[in-house]
Each structure stands twice: as C-alpha cells, then as structure tokens.
Amino acid sequence: MDPVLVVRGLKTEFSTQRGVVHAVDGVDLEIGRGEVLGLVGESGCGKSVTALSLMYLIPQPPGRIASGQIWFQGYDLLAGSQDEVVLVPREDKPPKIVRHDPALKRHRARMNKIRGREISMIFQEPMSSLNPVLSVGYQVAEVLLYQRRRQICDALLSRKDITKDDLEIFKHAVESADAEERDHLVADFCVRTGLQAEAVNTVIERSGLQLAERIDRVRSLAGRRRIGSRWFLRFLKRLDELEDHHFQREWQKLSRLSLAQPVLELFSHERGPEPGGLPRLLRISPGETAVQLYFQGVTSASETLRSGVESRVKQAVAASPGSPLRAIRSVAIGSGCVELRFAPEDGSARREDAEYRSRAFLYWFLMNTPIVRRALSRPLEEEAKRHVLELLKLVRIPEPTKIYHEYPHELSGGMQQRVMIAMALACDPAMMIADEPTTALDVTTQAQILKLIKDLRERMNSAILYITHDLAVIAEISDRVAVMYAGKIVEDAPVDELFANPMHPYAQGLLQSIVSMDSRKVEPGVPLPTITGTVPDLISPPKGCRFHPRCPFAFDRCRKEDPALVLRGERHKVACHLYDKEAAA
Ligand SMILES: Nc1ncnc2c1ncn2[C@@H]1O[C@H](COP(=O)(O)OP(=O)(O)O)[C@@H](O)[C@H]1O
Ligand code: SF4
Ligand SMILES: [Mg+2]
Q1: d(CA 140, CA 159)
Q2: Which domain does 300 fall in, by range?
C-alpha cells in the first residue's frame, strides 16, 4: 500500500528535574492511504507523545525530538529542525535544553502549512482543546480561513448571481411578521449570498417599496460586492499559490539531505552482495543536487553497476509509490561513484520567490489596517461560515446555525468532540490523528462518535492513526494495529491476525485482560487475568527488553539485549527474543 507516512527511529525526550524522560524511543511506523492504524498500549507508554511528535507539537523545552525521520508524502518533516533545540550537558544537574529561535521559527512556519491542512488531529479532551472565548463556529472557520483560502476565493469568484433559491429566502424574510424568524432568514440569506446583514435589513425595513424593487436593490448590492472584492480574491489566490510553491521548495531542499537514510536502507549490506547484483556499499555522500554512492572495490563505476543501481531504485519506487526515493530523477556515473541525481531547480523559482515576498508584504500591510481588513475579509469570512455550516451538518450537529454562535462550555462533551472532528475534516487532510477521541465521553456518546468516525472514514480515504488503550475499539475501527510498550513498538500486525495470533507476551496479556460478555469464559470467583506490575519509569527504563520485569517468559538474553522489531509473518512484526530462540531450536 502506498504509504502516506513513514516513521523511522523516532526518539522524543523530556528534560525534567529528575532526569531525561525517554518517552518515545526508536519508534518505526508506516500508514498507507485510506488505512486505519490503531496504536494501543497502557497509559504512559508514549502514544500521545508519538502523536504530538508527528504533528511537531512537542513543547520545547522541556521536550525535544532527539532523532529520527518522519517522511510524510515524500518530505521529511524533521528536516531542518535538527538545529532548533540542543541538549547541553551540565555537571551535577540534568541537561538543559536550549532553543535556537530563528531556526525554530522557520520550521514552525513550514509546519503550519502542513498541520491542520495535510495532517489534522482530534485531541483527547475536547473541552481543553477548544478555545473557551471564541464561538465554536468561528474556531472551525478559522481553520478554513488560514488553510483553505484558495478554495474560498474560488467559491466566491465562481458565484454568478443571486439564485432563485436565495431569492425565495429573501422573499420569505420580507413577508415574515415574526422578527426572530426574519433574523434567521436574513442570516441564512447573507451566508448564501455573502451580503452584509445590516445592508439587507435596510432594504427590508425601507417602507414604501414593492417586492420587485427590494429584489432589485439586493441584486445591485450583490453586484457591487462582487466587483469590489474580485481583485483582492485574485490577489489572495496567487499569494497562496506562491506561498505553497515556496514551502514545497524549502521542504524539498531540506528533505534531500535526509534521503541518506532511505538510500542506505535500500543498499544496506544485508541485501548484498547478490548473484549478478551490486557490490557492497562502502559509504554515501548526500548533497542538495545528488547522493553519491561508493562501492567496495569500485574505482571507476561501470554502466552495469549504474543500471543495477537504477533498477533497484525503480523497483523500490514501484513497490511503494509514496517512497521518498521518488525524488531521484536519474542515476548517473560520477567519479569513482554512482550518483542518484535530483531534478535541477526550476529557473522560475527566484522570480516566484521575489513575487511571493512583495505580495506577502502588501497582504501584511492591508491586514494591519483595520478598516481595510474588515472590508476585504468580510466576504471570505461569510463564505467560510457557509462551509462551516456544511461541515457541522456532516458531523451530525443539529441546528448548525444556532450552534455556530455557541461557546464550548454551552455544548455537551459529545457535541464538542463533533466540533473537533469537523475542525479536523475541514481541510480534507491526507492524514488524521485521533488521540483517544472517545475516552473522555460517556459510553453512549462514545458509540455515536465511533460510528461517526467509521462513516466518515468511508468518505474520506485519509490515513487515520487511531490511538486508544481500548482493544475493543481497535477491533472495531482499525485495519492494522501497532502495540506500544514503554516508548517502543513491540508488535505490528493486521487487526485479525493480531487478535487471532498475538505474538508478543505484552500483546497476549492485553488481549487476555479484555472482559468478555461470554459467560463461558468468565469463571465465577476467579479473578480476571491481568499483566502484573506497572509501566516502567521512562527516566531509567529496564535494560534489555523493557518488558522483562513483567514478562512470564523472560530469559537471560532478555535482560541484556533490546529485541529489534522483526518481520515474523507476511505482515506481522514483533520485537521479542522468544522467536529467535524458536527459530534456532
Ligand atoms: N511535558 C512533559 N514533561 C515530562 N514528561 C512528559 C511530558 N509529556 C509526557 N511526558 C512523559 O512521557 C511519557 C509518555 O506519555 P504519554 O505519551 O502522554 O502517554 P500515553 O501513552 O498515555 O499517551 C510519560 O511517562 C509521561 O510522563
Ligand atoms: S524479549 Fe524476553 S522479556 Fe521481552 S517480551 Fe520477549 S520473552 Fe519477554
Ligand atoms: Mg495519551
């Protein structure tokens, strides 16, 4: 399956008074397009920190992403962030984390164009994730106004005239004797047409006019509005397009230097030498225009070696179209090496960057003049509101027009979580992370939210990382499961396979401890099976396998050596020495 996200060796740590907490310690994950990966494990095992690391939302300091790669749609999201925070060792004190602010700012700006737009997140506690002083509708609209400006501009530019349906609403508003009903109708009419409520009310309240005259007046209002904002909409669309190109180029430049790791994996020593294949890889030298590969015993690369390298790259890209290796445009013979070359930078890049800067300055100037900002952004806000009302309907919020203006504390937990889901869906993201979205809710609301996510999943085709400690939820929603223990992934398998044949003793323990409604399985008076002990302290986790103090099968090697996550079935990976022992026996 084409992977949307590939995580390699992710390590995240927090510097505390007691020492460094190794919350995530070498996590490897992959999620394909349209796939739901369930991430499961006890509280405190590092699930949320993994999710926050993927979104680059770790509070820095005290936290920092110490190493690893997060490849998202061909870009390494950690590229260029390495210099942002450094750990400075101190005598008799825990190490101190120091920020490099300019680098942090640049990386945050790049990430802001991915967060919410390409990867969105539903947090565990909707009440503490929503802003208490802004109406919920405004909070969803804000996402659209920041991340989907181009689509909003397109919708406004393509709006022809007031439609017949819009006029029907206006006629009802004129004829309505009930003030409250009229207000609702006017609000609806304004959302649909992008007109201002005060202007429409003036037309309605003006005495001595026939209905036809009132209709002419709102039509002319709409005509004036379209002409007035058209130049700004075109300006904004172009600004957005230039901004996208600018950030894409930056990601591309930085990610090319990170390509060393996937290239190394592809040509790793374990794979070669093969019969008629490639010699051993000695070293690689990554650069912005090419990665150079030096092979053992090769002083001048031959055409056979070049085509061997080329076919291995092609095979890897064909097997996984989302692979970062697709950035390689050609394979050529260099001096004493084979070069994996990237596409040369487009000559128009500089011109585009200059245009982007001048437009960005003009935009900043316009938006910092309150009266201009109000006039220019009003139509955009009203169009965004129309989209928000559709989103609120999609997540089955009753009376969206009313709820739009309400504040988070006025809604129930389930409704708040629906708003969070609407926010996460607003930009049609390629990936969605749901961090225990139903844990804070009561059981009936949990079932409703779970059903909603399942229904939306059919529509969206986004990759979903669903985090929970509840295996029953995992069974219901995910295609594949990754089991996490003390900052590491210990088992990764398709959901049916994991439930039928759990291999890691921790996963076996988790499955045994599920309470079954089947009375045959629960003997009266016999305590339910549990995993003895607790999750270890991540400041000084146990040496070797982190599960060994709690594992009924632990043996000598477990106390000394950390097991690697190894493929043990077709798609079943597990990190446990037991299976090496079995293989050796
Ligand atoms: N801001 C922080 N400062 C220090 N330690 C933290 C911080 N956030 C998380 N941790 C630690 O990281 C570990 C993993 O936490 P978390 O990812 O929240 O677990 P969970 O699997 O329950 O989501 C825990 O030991 C927690 O104490
Ligand atoms: S490696 Fe050893 S201690 Fe760890 S889970 Fe396997 S058997 Fe148990
Ligand atoms: Mg958590």
Answers
A1: 22
A2: 254-342
